[in-house]
Each structure stands twice: as C-alpha cells, then as structure tokens.
UniProtKB/TrEMBL annotation:
Residues 174-208 form a coiled coil. It holds the Pfam family PNPOx_N. Residues 43-137 form the Pyridoxamine 5'-phosphate oxidase N-terminal domain. SUPFAM superfamilies: FMN-binding split barrel. It comes from the Bacteria. InterPro entries: Pyridox_Oxase_N, Split_barrel_FMN-bd. This is Pyridoxamine 5'-phosphate oxidase N-terminal domain-containing protein. It comes from Silvibacterium bohemicum. Keywords: Coiled coil.
Amino acid sequence: MKLGSLLFTPVVKKLQERYGSRRQYERMVGSSATREDFTQFETEFLAERDSFYWASTSSSGWPYVQHRGGPPGFLKVVDDHTLAFADFSGNKQYITTGNLLTDNRVAMIFVDYPRQARLKVLGRADVFEGKDAAAWLDRVKVPGYKAVIERVYVIHVEAFDWNCQQHIVPRYTAEEIHAAVHAIEERVSALETENSRLRAELAAKKLSEIP
C-alpha cells in the first residue's frame, strides 16, 4: 500500500489543491515508480542506523514520539517489508508498548545526518515477550552488546517514502569525526615523531662540537 493512500485524506487533498501541490502528488501516487517494498538501497540505509524516532497513539488519542537507539545495526531488516529490533531495558515507562497493545500502527523516521537523507516508514508493530520472543532473540541480538532484551518489536511495513533534504543540518558522531580526521592525526603524529628525532640529532651534534 502506498504512503499517499494512507496519509492523503480528503482534508489533506483539499489543502494540497488550495496551495497548488495536488497535481504533483496525484502523479506520484499513481506512478509505477512508487515502491511498496524495500530495495537494496533502503535495506543498506536502515541496517546502518544507530537510532530513529517512532510514533504510536495512546488509547486516549494522544500521539507519543519516542527515540530508539543502539549500536549500528541494532535495527534488523528481516525482508523487503519487515523490520525488527530488540527492546533493551530502559526507564520502564512502557508507554510505547502499552500504546501498541491497543493500536499497533506506528510511524517511523530515520535520518542520516551526514548524508542529509531521511526515510519515513508506516507500519504495524507486533510485540513479542517471554516465550513468544524466543524465536526472535537470536535474530535481534547485537554481538558484544550486553544490554538486557525485554521484548522484541516486529514492524510490518505498509508504506515508506523519502523526504527532501531541506533543513537537515549535517551532524556527525564522535566516531565519524574520528574516522574523518584519522589520516590527519596519523600525519601529525608522524611529524611530531620526526621533529623529536631531528631535535635529538641537533642536540647531539651541538654536544659533539663542544671542545
């Protein structure tokens, strides 16, 4: 199911008509280029993420947005329309989990700040705990990561779309900055070593010239 058919309600369409974008989005909705399953591009993009935001809706009707994070690769692309990840032990509020037990619809947004890329995903989430989660544990574990897994979320994707890059400010993690400047750091270290060697040679030469 395409994202437009889920989100472009009659009111949204009227607003698009009022502000001149309806024809553009009508073409996009009907275009054969609009995909419903992840390609290799989306799969690789999602597998590299170390965080994302997702929204659920409470039984009182309020939306709730939550940040989820973990080591790169904690989000697993099960197939071209299914995602899964472990719910690591946290603050024990259980707001999202509670919301999903009454309304399993979720909206997710994934951002790659250095490349200024943003992917939106709509889906329905299953919550697996205890014995029900056993079949998923090995699939969502992150090697070397010691956090306790309380449950597993499995998201059945119904639609996705890429956002424009406008207003995504490039930001970098400490690891990304270190990787970018690693060559410079190595060069500086080599120059410092060479400088120390030359200073030592110069000092030794001066001592040898003393009568």
